């Protein structure tokens, strides 16, 4: 072996060691470093794979949640597919990219709530209207908020005898194709639950209904050793805390926090203030990650808070305070256009998803180097 080859090997091993050491430090600082976005459409797949390889991986992102919903060519329920949807081959490209970069890939399908948006009923209730919790609430031609029906998003009835057979077949299929050991069920912003006109849910405790659905999903996933992730807003008391009806509950589901299994991962999102509710979830025995969206300054504060929490609590609490996750609430294509400068909104100022993502991971990197 030549002297040049020896030096080259030494350099290579040095880079590998530095990368491994940096990742070990970050794993100790923040075990979960996540990114959540709607799954790309097939035409956006190549750009999204580039984003995984060139943007997520170098930033040491280790968890990617893809909101699938009906953007997959389901075999179990082809009637629920979007008209344009990812194929199994497309998904395997995503799986391969994440495995190569040591990124845990978790699919999401919105369960319980978010079965509609604005004036559009989503696929599940459109195809199976009998699952609707509030069939008497008709979708408006032009959606406005607030409205007399209190319609934000439709929910399915958690007590309908046929609903779980359908949704669990979707869940199993998507988890299998993604080779996933966890599943995100959404379950945020559930305004319709235990409706007075529902023949099954009327008069029942809303917290017990919500907790029952969480437990039902969790137990189904546990049969194949998969973990459940959900958004945390319905488990917070919006009135007592002053957080309100969006990032917390005003319809009494918050008491479900004492009724759900403690091995459910909570994604605690706060977008208008950096509210410090992660510690509350941890004191209830739940693992939690903090999730910013589009305000870079808040993302930095929330990251600093999470690191501070982990340094200042007992070992038992530290284990539950798991880390941070950037959330993206535009379509993947719109975000990628913004990120790569293809199409930006000059009126957005600093508060964009791209800037928030960069600020979040810039702060994680800074704190990692400082520690």
Automatic annotation (TrEMBL):
Q: What reaction does this enzyme carry out catalytically?
A: Hydrolysis of terminal non-reducing N-acetyl-D-hexosamine residues in N-acetyl-beta-D-hexosaminides
Pfam families reported in the protein's UniProt record: Glyco_hydro_20
E.C. no: 3.2.1.52
Under InterPro entries, the record lists: Beta_hexosaminidase_sua/sub (IPR025705), GH (IPR017853), Glyco_hydro_20_cat (IPR015883)
Gene3D superfamilies annotated for this entry? Glycosidases
Record keywords: Cell membrane included?
Answer: no
Q: Which residues form the Glycoside hydrolase family 20 catalytic domain?
A: 84-305
Give the UniProt keywords, A-Z. Answer: Hydrolase
For whether the record's keyword set contains Hydrolase, the answer is yes
Q: Provide the family line.
A: Belongs to the glycosyl hydrolase 20 family.
Q: What is this protein called?
A: beta-N-acetylhexosaminidase
Species name for this entry? Spirosoma liriopis
């Amino acid at each position: 072996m030549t002297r040049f080859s020896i030096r080259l090997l030494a350099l290579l091993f040095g880079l590998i060691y530095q990368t491994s050491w940096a990742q070990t430090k970050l794993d100790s600082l923040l075990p979960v470093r996540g990114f959540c976005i709607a799954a790309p459409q097939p035409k956006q797949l190549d750009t999204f794979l580039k984003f995984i390889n060139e943007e997520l991986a170098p930033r040491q992102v280790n968890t990617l949640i893809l909101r699938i919903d009906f953007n997959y060519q389901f075999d179990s329920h082809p009637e629920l597919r979007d008209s344009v949807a990812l194929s199994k081959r497309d998904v395997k490209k995503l799986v391969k990219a994440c495995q190569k970069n040591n990124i845990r890939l978790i699919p999401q399908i919105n369960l319980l709530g978010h079965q509609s948006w604005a004036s559009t009923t989503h696929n599940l209730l459109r195809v199976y209207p009998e699952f609707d919790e509030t069939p008497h609430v008709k979708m408006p031609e032009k959606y406005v908020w607030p409205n007399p029906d209190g319609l934000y998003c439709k929910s399915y009835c958690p007590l309908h005898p046929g609903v779980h057979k359908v949704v669990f077949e979707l869940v199993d299929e998507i988890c299998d194709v993604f080779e996933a050991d966890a599943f995100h069920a959404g379950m945020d912003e559930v305004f319709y639950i235990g409706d007075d006109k529902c023949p099954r849910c009327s008069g029942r405790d809303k917290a017990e209904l919500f907790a029952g659905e969480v437990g039902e999903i969790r137990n189904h996933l546990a049969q194949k050793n998969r973990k459940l992730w959900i958004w945390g807003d319905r488990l917070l008391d919006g009135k007592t805390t002053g957080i309100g009806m969006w990032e917390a509950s005003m319809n009494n589901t918050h008491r479900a926090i004492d009724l759900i299994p403690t091995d459910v991962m909570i994604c605690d999102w706060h977008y208008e203030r950096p509210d410090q509710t992660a510690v509350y979830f941890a004191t209830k025995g739940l693992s939690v990650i903090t999730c910013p969206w589009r305000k870079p300054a808040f993302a930095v504060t929330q990251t600093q808070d999470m690191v501070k929490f982990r340094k200042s609590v007992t070992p038992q609490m530290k284990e539950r305070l798991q880390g941070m996750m950037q959330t993206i609430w535009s379509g993947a294509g719109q975000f990628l256009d913004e990120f790569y400068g293809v199409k930006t909104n000059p009126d957005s100022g600093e508060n964009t998803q791209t800037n928030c993502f960069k600020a979040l991971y810039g702060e994680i990197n800074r704190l990692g180097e400082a520690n």
